[in-house]
Design brief:
By secondary structure, the chain is an all-alpha fold. The protein is built from 3 helices and no strands.
Length: 70
């Protein structure tokens, strides 16, 4: 999911999306521990998506948009 797609979501939707992503990350980590090595790439991508989501959520909290007021 791109940052632009995340910016279109409301703060409540972002919170729900974050919860879903974290639950999925937990499931993937259990799969990886069980020996399914294909999950490693998915875990990396999901962690980046969560970080991207947190950045967009922080933008919402600050009331700004990307680019700021310089």
């Amino acid at each position: 999911m791109t940052a632009d797609e995340l910016r279109q979501l409301s703060p409540d939707e972002l919170q729900v999306k974050e919860k879903e992503m974290r639950e999925q990350l937990t499931r993937l980590r259990f799969q990886l521990a069980g020996g399914q090595a294909e999950s490693l790439k998915k875990i990396r991508m999901l962690r980046k998506d969560i970080a991207r989501l947190l950045g967009v959520r922080r933008e919402h909290e600050l009331g700004g948009t990307r680019g700021g007021s310089h």
